[in-house]
Amino acid sequence: MAGVRQFDEETALRQALEVFWDHGFQRTTMLDLAAGTGVQRGSLYHAYGGKEQIFLKAFDQFAASFLDGAEAALKGRDSRIRLLRFFDYCIESIISGSPSRGCLSTRTAVEAGAEPVRRAVRKLLDDLEELVFQALDGADLVLKPREAARLVVATTRGLAVLERVYDDPRRRLGDTTRSFVRTLLR
Questions:
Q1: What does the pLDDT look like over 13-68, one tens digit per residue?
Q2: Of 56, 91, 113, 124, which sits most exposed with the smallest number of CB within 10 A?
Q3: What angle do CA 1, 59, 145 make, to 5 degrees?
Q4: 59-184, which class in CATH?
Q5: What is the pLDDT of residues 124-137, one digit of tens each?
Q6: What's this model's pTM, rounded to 2 decimal places?
Q7: In 94-113, which positions are buried (b, 16+ CB within 10 angstroms) versus exposed (e)?
Q8: Cα–Cα distance list, 134 to 30, 91, 100 (Å)
Q9: Where are the domains of the chain?
Q10: What 8-state DSSP symbol labels residue 186?
Q11: Closest by Cα among 164, 152, 161 to 73
């Protein structure tokens, strides 16, 4: 029947995200996406319009899921515990996979040239900052809550870089975030 997708969109987008994560946005081709999703190139073009549109749709799902996890990690009464749990969540996201795949949003931000892609990453980071800001509101901080939230988000990007260069990223990143939380809270 015309206009009816012959593939499961949620599965295809999840698989496409894996392809982007493995190859990076710039190096991923429509052939890679077709192979990774099991969906013909023509069907992908018809359904989404092209590589950038597929990425944006898949990244939107990724961002929503990541933000849900971040929000859950930031719940609770104790600011120190919330921040440590948040950083642990970010670290697990960064070092997931075997070998670890790194941070999708940071990798995409570094290599993406297309404004819609940069805008999608910026939205994720802005939304993450807002979650952290709300979680820090009322905490005994050495900075104003908005400044602290921006610094926390910037630190997550630094963690993504550190993960790429250290042999024991879980330990190194964990030590770094514990030190950071000690300096952020009074």
A1: 999 999 999 999 999 999 999 999 999 999 999 999 999 999 999 999 999 999 99
A2: 113
A3: 145
A4: mainly alpha
A5: 999 999 999 999 99
A6: 0.91
A7: bbeeeeebbbbbbbbbeebe
A8: 40, 21, 30
A9: 59-184
A10: -
A11: 152
